[in-house]
Amino acid sequence: MGKTKASNEPIAEAGTGTAPTEPASVKSLHDEVLDLQAGLNALSLQISERNAVIEKAVRLVQEHRREEQEHLASYQRYLLSGEPTAADGALAKVTAARKKVDQAAAAVRTHAGAGAELRSEWGRVYAELIRLLPLAEEAFNQLRGDRSLLSLLHDTINLASATIRRQVDDVLCDFEKGVAAR
Predict the structure, then answer these.
(1) pTM metric for this prediction
(2) What is the rounded CA–CA span in Å between residue 125 and residue 33?
(3) Which of these, 180, 101, 139, lies nearest to 20 by C-alpha position?
(4) Interatomic CA distance for residues 130 and 181, integer angstroms
(5) What is the pLDDT of residue 101?
(6) With contact defined as beta carbons under 8 Å apart, do 47 and 179 qualify?
(7) 3-state DSSP assignment of residue 21
(8) Taking a C-beta distance cutoff of 8 angstroms, is the pair 19, 12 a contact?
(9) Alpha helix stretches (DSSP H) within 81-146
(10) What is the reported pLDDT for 146?
(11) 120 pLDDT higher than 80
(12) Are 167 and 175 in contact (CB under 8 A)?
């Protein structure tokens, strides 16, 4: 039998895809759907926070690149005007700015990698939630006589579906913002 993560209650017959009709199993399915929704919400928040960090790091890279270009222009001016001491000072500033660019770019790569891992985990949780929804709906249809379970499952299905639609939109929007910022 299939098992939930939270308990040993069966949630479906192995390989059959049939929904549970026993109250304890239905409650277990309901709890697992709610746990997955909470996980999806938490991951979406983490993804949004990570994207904000990436955007800040990208802005920092751009700022350091501008600084590097300004020092490089000063270096070239000093060289052309025959001021080797000033040129050496400007070159040291170019080198320092380049180091800052490299460090900030490394931070962007690190945060982008962590963001990709979060999006991957979000996709896994999303897929599991999508897998459970038909089981919940089937259980809903089989339990039409039991009003309390019927109401519970109906609310769970509607809430999960709305959450999924909203989360997909939010994650895609945040991801597009993160890509655009790079």
Answers:
(1) 0.58
(2) 10
(3) 139
(4) 31
(5) 92
(6) no
(7) coil
(8) yes
(9) 84-142
(10) 56
(11) yes
(12) no
